[in-house]
Amino acid sequence: MAVSISRKLLHSSGSLSALSCCESSRIIHQSIRDSNAFYSNVSGDNLSTLESSSFCKGGLSFLAFRRLSTSILTPVSGNSAFPSELLSKKTVLPSERAPGHYEDLVMPVTNFHNEDKGFMVLAGDVFDVPIRKDIVHRVVRWQLAKRQQGTHSTKTISEVSGTGRKPWPQKGTGRARHGTLRGPQFRHGATMHGPKPRSHAIKLQKKVRRLGLKIALSARIAEGKLLVFEDLEVPTHKTKNIVNYVSQMENTKKLLLVNGGPITEKLKLATQNLHYVNILPSIGLNVYSILLHDTLVMSRDAVNRIVERMHTPINR
After folding, report:
1. Neighbouring C-beta atoms of residue 118, cutoff 10 Å
2. In the chain, what is the straight-line distance between the N-terminal and C-terminal CA atoms, in Å?
3. pLDDT score of 309
């Protein structure tokens, strides 16, 4: 009984699949007849014979479908025009250059008056290194810990000013027993386990410090926030000149100027009243200062000195 029922189910499913195959063949046949690009190469009688013989048969249906679906439409693949609905309406933009390939970069050189001063090649092993936030975090922690003064101090019981006499007898007064009034439980008494002057500095390898500075410079280059000037000379010591120069820069909220040698007196006087403009010599350039400012301006001499500093072998 069970065998006969299963055979009936198989027969019914086979008839349904055959019916669906034939129905799909009619739909595909109609869509192919509507397309002139495909129909120009194959005659109608042969195509209908191929469809009816292949799509209704289970074994050849995949081959026939593949034979019809692997045709590639190109603008010159026939006499008919290329179908407009297959063309993309989206503009194709070239992919931007990804940083971190150690490639030398060519930067335009200008000045405060936005004059063309030529070009400069930046070393790829200094200004185009992969961005690593963990290295930057380690270097910033090292900088902030090292610059802590560590002069905090509290007085112990031997350093507090006061008498060493026992305040009252051990027994007979009804009060708690005490041997000194300089203990931590009394007012103006000692501080137990308080801070003492010490160094908060932590150790960090020199190669990691250098790598952190390279990453910070590479990040500013990738953001387009690093400018190279021929020099940082200003005509006068007036602050309004620097204000006008900074206002001409786009999306600049805080500016860091890096000079190769010592800071000139005119530039120092022109920027000392501006809280959003700071100056550093190239020897003092560091990761934390770069991160505090959104725009970095370096002179040509400063770039050369930084590259020379990064290429100097580390003394072990």
Report:
1. 9
2. 91
3. 94
Chain center to CA of 214: 14
For the record, the structure tokens of 13 come out as 């499913």
Contacting residues for 217 by C-beta, under 8 A, at least 6 apart: 126, 127, 226, 290, 296, 306
Q: How far apart are CA 93 and CA 220, in angstroms?
A: 24
Give the integer Cα–Cα distance in Å for 51 and 42: 12
Say what the pLDDT of residue 255 is: 96
Backbone Cα Rg of the chain: 40
> Residues in the chain with pLDDT < 50?
1-25, 27-29, 31-32, 35-78, 82, 88, 90-95
What is the number of other CB atoms lying within 10 angstroms of the CB of residue 53?
12
How far is the C-alpha of 296 from the C-alpha of 289, rounded, in Å?
A: 10
Question: Using an 8 Å Cβ cutoff, are 36 and 73 in contact?
Answer: no
Residue closest to 123 by CA, chosen among 313, 304, 246: 304
Provide the pairing of β-strand 295-299 with 255-259.
Answer: parallel
Q: How far is CA 6 from CA 1, 13, 24, 182, in A?
A: 9, 10, 27, 101
Ordered domains of the chain (ranges, CATH): 124-131+202-311 (3.40.1370.10)
Structure tokens at 70: 């692997």
pTM value?
Answer: 0.66
- Look at residue 250 in the predicted model and tell me its pLDDT: 86
Report the pLDDT value the prediction gives residue 273, as an integer from 0 to 100: 94
